[in-house]
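Worked problem 6 (solution included).
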Amino acid sequence: MDRLLSNLKITVPEKIYVKDPESSDLGKRIVEHSITLIDEIGFEAFTFKKLGVLIGSNESSIYRYFESKHKLLLYLSSWYWAWIEYQLVFETHSLNPTEKLKKAIEIVARSTKEDTNFSHIDEVILNRIIVNENSKSFLTKEVDQENKDGYFVIYKRIVHRLRDMIKDINPDYAFPSSLASTIIEGSLHQHFLKDHFKSITDCKTGVTPIDFYQNLVFNTLKS
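Solution. The predicted structure is:
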């Protein structure tokens, strides 16, 4: 699988960016260092001016790739979910329905490890950004138009993959899409709680969001 993944290119919807950051060294540096800076200071405090100082480039050069920091966050979010989707495709291939759903929950809910196939992106740091900032990519007044423009197509594909896995186990279950989206968003939330509000989650050392959602999903589908 590692050999196959090394030949894959993560594809992000073209409307999100002005110029594909994967097409140049500067674009890759913009992505790489934006991840570092957002993780360090948070998305609210992040600006293209600060990023320009960090990478030693004019602020205007960043606008040649992204028209706003919101579009940059959309790019990072889409890249992350496309990366997760590749893992779902390869790691669940040829498994039986029960093992496939179990593995899928593990993939979307596990702690991230660095993937050396993408040298300019630190997936561990990017995962922290997704846990802390992902909702800011769609909790906006423009979400409906951006949805129509296809900005969230990768994220929705992952929900649909999980939905179909749920239906394969229990075709009569009435809420497969709701359960699938709950697994994804809830996993991020449990990781956030585990790091910041330990008293209101049972996820801790030895008990992971994977354990919780596998237990929740399979007990739900039995009923």
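Discussion: The domain at 2-222 is CATH 1.10.357.10 (Tetracycline Repressor; domain 2).
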